[in-house]
Amino acid sequence: MKNIVCVTGTRPEAIKMAPVILELKKNSDFNVTTLATGQHTDMLRQALKDFGIVPDVDLNIMKQAQSLDYITSSVLQGVGKFLDENRQDLILVHGDTSTTFAAALAGFYRHVPVGHVEAGLRSHNLALPFPEEANRILTDGIADLFFAPTEGDAENLRHEGKSENIFITGNTVIDALYDILERRKGMTEPDYIQKIQDRPMILMTAHRRESWGKTLEGICAAVIDIIEERNDAVFLIPLHKNPAVRDVIKNILKDFSENVIFTEPLNYPEFVYAMNKSFFILSDSGGVQEEASAINKPVLIMRTLSERPEAVTHGTCILAGTERENIRREALKILNEPEYLKSIIAKNKMPFGNGTAAKQIHGIIRKFLDIQ
Length: 372
Ligand code: UD1
Ligand code: UDP
Description:
The chain is of the alpha/beta class. It has helices at 11-25, 42-50, 68-85, 98-109, 132-142, 151-159, 172-183, 193-196, 214-229, 243-253, 268-277, 287-295, 309-314, 324-336, 338-344, 357-368, and strands at residues 2-8, 30-36, 57-58, 90-94, 114-117, 145-148, 166-168, 201-205, 234-238, 260-263, 280-283, 299-301, 317-319. The site of uridine-diphosphate-N-acetylglucosamine has 24 residues, from helix 1, helix 2 and helix 3.
């Protein structure tokens, strides 16, 4: 029996690692441990629960307004202790968070092979997104198995001198999305639908660390500008749990209750429903770019560059930047120009795979661990 530990710490890691955990658990040759670092508490557990996953181990590290030093050192020590007490044949990490890097480092220090799911993404700018670009590079620097979603991601790895064990699998978020579309069948309509009726709904999420402060305030000002020109528009804003984000957004937009609906973070089926219902999405999220490409929903990305260039080439995702005026202009263009909206509904092949990434990863791991 081979021991594999799958590490998750934040909401997107849970959503994107869930298909891999569920797939590996089908195999009786593997003893699979789901380890939650608890970098996020409620948002992580909620996302795992949406897939029926209960962590076997929860390090529960989260503190209010936690620092990067704190997350990194707590995860390193916590995962390290787990690995010392429980011999593992493989540690799987996902993506680009501090959990990802610190857990990979704990594996590396103990010569436990590290598999990186969603390897090779690069913005080629260490400041954008921060600290995620560094986390990806550092994780790939010590990983043994690279599950790259796209050819472009694999090429980034080769460019950095990696030549072995690079596999192009598609992104596991597509598997997660298809799974949740099945699970959410029969779900009732949320209450906010009453308010929206036929009005154009814009789903907005924002949380990036490099946007905290003035940039986030400018984004909120752009929302007000848009409402002033299109009084029928409704913004649905599921607020991230981070007070550095939610308090600012709430404070600036609290007086616009006719046009702004705040919710707690939506569970994954509810969020997928909201993406589908929206006219377009305004977001700085990584995962949302991939999901939106799969359901052909336009996204204005509130960033100046993306480590997912395929989403932009695909057509559905537009780099709007973080400047108030650019966001206003791009949003109004989508709202006011039906022909423009039609033109960005992409006709190209969706770039992030066909929903079989987890199955492929399973097969590759079997071979890597020498299981016949
Ligand atoms: C983290 C990741 C980021 C990822 C994002 C996904 C790092 C450095 N950042 O950013 O890469 O894109 O998650 O959402 O790894 N909080 C709660 N409850 C929760 C979650 C967060 O109260 O369930 C609050 C806490 O006060 C916490 C704060 O949010 O201290 C920040 O959480 P943290 O994980 O440090 O940063 P995120 O901005 O969530
Ligand atoms: N998401 C969710 N509920 C929400 C907001 C987002 O389930 O209220 C999902 C979304 O579908 C995507 C993931 O969370 O899969 C993105 O997480 P986030 O934006 O926090 O992180 P990022 O992808 O930017 O790292």
